[in-house]
Amino acid sequence: MNIVNILEEIEKVDGEIYERLNPRRKAMKEFFSMGSKIALSAMPFALGSMFTKAYGQTVPEPVVDVLQYALTLEHFEAAYYVKGYNEAPIPAADKPAIQMIRDSEAKHVAFLQQVITAAGATPVAAKASYDFSAGTGTPAGAGNGPFKTAFSDYAVFLAVAQVLEDTGVRAYKGRAGELLGQKVYLTAALGIHAVEARHAAKIRYMRSMNGFSIKPWITGGNDSGNANADGNYAGATPESNVNQGGVIITDLNGVNGKISVNAATEAFDEPLTKAEVLALVAPFGVS
Amino acid sequence: MENLIIKDEDSSLLEGAFLDKKVQRRSFLKYAGAGAAGVALLAAGCKHSNYNPDDPENGYGSGISLGTGDVAILNYAYALEQLEAAFYTKVVSSFYSGASDVEKAFLTDIRDHEIAHREFFKAAIPANGGTAIKDLEVDFSSIDFTSRASVLGTSMAFEDLGVSAYDGVGYALKNATFLLLAGKIASVEARHAATIRELLTPNTFLGDQVTADSVNISRSPAEVFAIAGKYIKTKIDTSSLPTS
Predict the structure, then answer these.
(1) What is the 3-state secondary structure (H, E, C) of B72-136?
(2) Which fold has domain B15-41+61-237?
(3) Chain A residues with CB inside 8 Å of B168's CB?
(4) Total-model pTM
(5) Cβ–Cβ gap B210/A169 under 8 Å
(6) Torsion angle of alpha carbons B211, B74, A177, A112, nearest 10°?
(7) Are A53 and A109 a contacting pair, CB within 8 Å?
(8) Could you tell me if residue A259 is inside a domain?
């Protein structure tokens, strides 16, 4: 990503790159006026945007759609931890971790907003309010859904957090293919995807430390202990899947005989489609 | 975002060739005036042809071939999974003294996951028309398997490395199915990394592995082999790994 090299490489195939960058002042102007407003880490995105504008192109619509989708989910996650950190009866030992995850989600929101802006689109806004009880869908009533004790019962708070993190991992994974070959955007999405998985592991570990029998990785299918989350571990490719690209993992040799179903399901996290995720978060008032 | 690292030699490169050749020519950097620091940061990443497989510095000259295209990337992942599986197999065969039940359970699970990953690549690469690399010879002489700090420290390093390796190579895959499979494994490596980190020091599940935006760092194959190389005895020719 050395800009000297980028320009030199472009010059080899397009001798008029500098002319292109110059007459199209607008692209340059936008880039540098944006540069003063955005964090340095978002600069590669702004730079990419400048080049696409210089060539009269825009960031592909599917890329922007994935980013907006990610931001939609991050807004919701961030709001959950803001409210949870303020209201849930979090034990002192767990407070720093919840704070770190809260801040991490807020950073994802800010980062995606910058990246989407750099791509020339308007970032989707957070909802004015969410129904964290998951009661907005029918037939349950708003605020009266299955998770209504999330902010008064710490065990429920952690269970919902686990489901949200695991679902976040699945959501990013499900759309990675739409960023195929998009070096900057895909690498960033994979980077957030990995952080969501780190959150999920920590939340699960905290649940185990608080007396709930669960591992940091997803065993079998819905291991959250809450049947209301069955859908979050199901889908076209459920977490119970052991067929990876035609290879049946449980047919492979493990330490003592074949690899177990538990190990096979734990070793691979599965994707959710956009439609599946949107249906799962709809009861929370996310759209 | 591995390119946001300032290196002295890169700064001088910027002031040298770039300023002389390009800026005067088209005043490119004049526009960048206010953002010069930012451009310097951007430019400070990898130079093109940034990985020389014959560089004796990292000991990777000629060696076994990874193949080309997506197969090379799958073999690259297979190499890392072989390394991890071999490590945990040794760890679990004789735990360090004082290993807690939780630690034993986690390390055994992780061993089984890494074996699943290894065996998956071994089967999937030929199933997709490629040739899987042979079994690698590992070198764990630098690890003290009787020491908790050494074992968990190495485990953490391997897991963090694995996450950043998958994240850093995903963009070069041409086949969306392979990208999805890589993603399925990458998030499990991230779960491992966070868990081992928690065993070592509570609340380091993100630690120094994320940027200021809380995005996991990614590493190029060259960066990965610079770290993993000392544990792999078998020479690997990484020159055929795609870079775009």
Answers:
(1) HHHHHHHHHHHHHHHHHHHHHHCCCCCCCHHHHHHHHHHHHHHHHHHHHHHHHHHHCCCCCCCCC
(2) Ferritin (1.20.1260)
(3) 187
(4) 0.83
(5) no
(6) 0
(7) no
(8) no
Say whether A263 and B112 touch across the interface (CB within 8 A).
yes
Question: Distance (Å, rounded) from C-alpha B177 to C-alpha A116?
Answer: 26
B119–A4 C-beta distance less than 8 A: no
Residues in chain B closer than 8 A to A2 (CB atoms): 10, 13, 43-48
The ipTM estimated for the assembled molecules is 0.87
Give the chain B residue nearest A218 (alpha carbons): B188
Residues A134 and A85 in one domain: yes
List the pLDDT tens digit at each of the 244 positions of chain B.
334 333 333 333 333 333 334 434 343 333 333 333 333 333 333 334 444 444 444 444 579 999 999 999 999 999 999 999 999 999 999 999 999 999 999 999 999 999 999 999 999 999 999 999 999 999 999 999 999 999 999 999 999 999 999 999 999 999 999 999 999 999 999 999 999 999 999 999 999 999 999 999 999 999 999 999 999 999 999 999 999 8
Do A102 and A81 touch, CB atoms closer than 8 A?
A: yes
Same domain, A84 and A28: no
Report how many domains make up chain A.
2
Whether the CB-CB separation of A74 and A108 falls below 8 Å is answered with yes
Q: What's the CATH number where A100 sits?
A: 1.20.1260.10
Size of interface A-B (CB pairs under 8 A): 270
A245–B124 CB contact, under 8 Å:
yes
Of A22, A36, A253, the CB nearest to B119: A253
H-helix or E-strand containing A109?
A: helix A95-118
Tell me if B210 and A104 make a contact (CB, 8 A cut-off): yes
Do B167 and A47 count as a contact with CB atoms less than 8 A apart? no
Question: What range does the domain containing A203 cover?
Answer: 61-232+272-284
Neighbour tally for A109: CB within 10 Å: 21
Conformation bin of residue B111: beta by default, left when phi > 0, alpha when psi is -120 to 50: alpha
